[in-house]
Specification:
The mean pLDDT is about 95. The protein has one domain: Peptide deformylase (Peptide Deformylase, Alpha-Beta Complex). It is globular and about 40 Å long. The strands form two sheets. A five-stranded antiparallel sheet has the order 2-3-4-5-6, sandwiched between helices. The chain contains four helices and seven strands, in the order βαββαβββααβ. It is an alpha+beta fold and about 200 residues long. It holds the Pfam family Pep_deformylase. One of its GO terms (biological process) is translation.
Amino acid sequence: MILSIVGYGDPVLRKKGVEIPQDYPELKELVANMYETMYKAFGVGLAAPQVGLAIRLFVIDTRPFSEDEDLSKEEQAQLAGFKKTFINATILKEEGEEWGFNEGCLSIPEVREDVYRHETITIEYYDEDFNKHTDVYDGLIARVIQHEYDHIEGILFTDKISSLKKRLIQKKLQNIMEGKTRPDYKMKFIAKKGR
């Protein structure tokens, strides 16, 4: 089932997600719906707060990045095969050079900015079967994880840009809050709540 993606300005995007138990109601269905919603919106990641749930859950599939011809064959193969569900994740370490990449967000349509993030992360999480993992990721995979992890911490990529750039995108952010943006996927805007 395609879920509505919550737009910029909704308070749920600013809440720190709570951990979920193994018996969280209809977890498998929620995860499947999140993947379906992400694919429909042509995203590479989606966090539970983006579908209105302040819980520590996000899904990632980096396959769309694997088509970048500037990447090595090895990087393309790695990105093509990376699809994971992260439950109750904690980033243990961020290491390496910070590097910039032009990021966007399904909750903030039509806004893209360069964001600097660490190259390598160590993350502890549970998969959808509640098996615990501690893994190290780098490059684009680490970046996507950091972006989605920020969502479960109540942080948006726009928090990581300069105040000048924030002023330059203010009108676009206001348009999202007022529901004046028209992405080609299902969204719920804060101005339209209660109507």
